[in-house]
Amino acid sequence: MSAPPKAPGPAPEPAAVATIRDLLSYRIHRLANALSRGAALRYRQEFGVSLMEWRILALLGGFAPLTLRDLARESGLDKAQASRAVKALVERGLVERAPGSTDAREVALRLSAEGARVQEGLMRAAREREAAFRAALPEGSLAMLEEAIRLLTAEARRQAALVDQGPREPG
Model-level pTM? Predict the structure, then answer.
């Protein structure tokens, strides 16, 4: 029989990290999954799009035209995932392809008129969710959360850069 989940509470000190459930990165990952799950269910039910498709529509709605490479980078998807999602959106008439403005081999992606209509509804739903999340935070904690996200993002990038540099030779 497995142990019951721990009740949420303050993060343990690093020396007190006994299991994966105590790791800050794991707890943030679980939060991100919960946020994504709720969004995915709502966007699928109300608009018939997956979370991946929603991200692509939202990015194209705000920043089109985008190439597939730019769209993959901005959405955090690998190029193959982004390509499959874009193909499905093109087939449904929500996204249009056009020759790139600087390189004829590249394809510029943008929303169709129907895609823009769906994207507007998706953004309305996203703003409603955002307002609910912000309202759930006690006064003054949003600024602290924003700063914590900024600091953790910078540290995560710093650590990733160290790994990208490869192992160091012993001195």
Answer: 0.78
